[in-house]
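Sample pair:
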Amino acid sequence: MCLTFTILQVCEGIPIVRDTDHLFLELPLLKEQLEKYIDEASATGSWSQNAVRITDAWLKEGLRPRCITRDLKWGVPVPHEKYKDKVFYVWFDAPIGYISITACYTPEWEKWWKNPENVELYQFMGKDNVPFHT
């Protein structure tokens, strides 16, 4: 590996290259299921045209495995001994986190979330986060 800047500006140290293992979501294995789901969502109009176009472009380009872990000191720990020093990448666990935080709001959170006839969830995000939340 060749680094252009060999001295770090903040600490004036030298970067160290090291190997590390990570967990990946194997998106290529889900391609057929995703295409079927996208076709249905597109036909029913439940997705915006922009979302459909972005997703179609990704499918045509070819899905790649997406890394879902990081070497950080903070975050949701990976519950496996081999990965005890890793956490889930924030954008991987965030969508469920948005929902689970309601359990901190009220002990009656299940009455709302486990009542599918009366629940519709809409989540809004910037286009830069679409790959991670999709």
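The radius of gyration is 20 Å.
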